[in-house]
Amino acid sequence: LEFVNPSPVYPRIAERRKWEGTTLLKVRVDRQGNLVDIWVHKSSGHRILDREALRTVKKWQFSPGKLAGVAMESEITVPVDFILTNK
C-alpha cells in the first residue's frame, strides 16, 4: 500500500524567524498499521517545529512492519524536515 501523507505546515513564527531543522520522531505501529505511540526522538531545536511534526505525523497512515511476510508491531524513525525555500 502506498499512502499520500500530508506535509507539515510551516509555523508562521518559525518562518519569520527563519528557523529550520529536522525533527526525528519515533513511531510505534501495530500489526494493522495503526499508530500506537509517537514521541520526539531528537528535537529540531525548536519546540514549535517539533509540535507541528507531531501534529502532522499523528494524521499519517502506516503499513505494518513485516517479518517473513507476517505483519507485526514495529517501531520506526520518521524524519520531518523544516526547510525554508525563500531564505
Account of the 3D structure:
The protein is of the alpha+beta class and 87 residues long. It is built from two helices and five strands. Strand 3 and strand 4 form a beta hairpin. The longest helix has 11 residues. It is elongated and about 45 Å long.
Task: Profile the largest sheet.
Answer: 3 strands, antiparallel
Specify the oligomeric state.
Answer: single chain
Order of helices and strands: HEEHEEE
- How far apart, in Å, are the first and last alpha carbons? 36 Å
The radius of gyration is 14 Å
Q: Into which percent range does the helicity of residues fall?
A: 10-25%
Uncertain regions spanning at least 5 consecutive residues: none
Q: Order of strands across the biggest sheet?
A: 2-1-5
Number of strands: 5
What is the number of helices? 2
Please state the average pLDDT score.
94
Structural class assignment:
alpha+beta
Give the overall form.
Answer: elongated
Query: DSSP strand (E) fraction?
Result: 35-45%
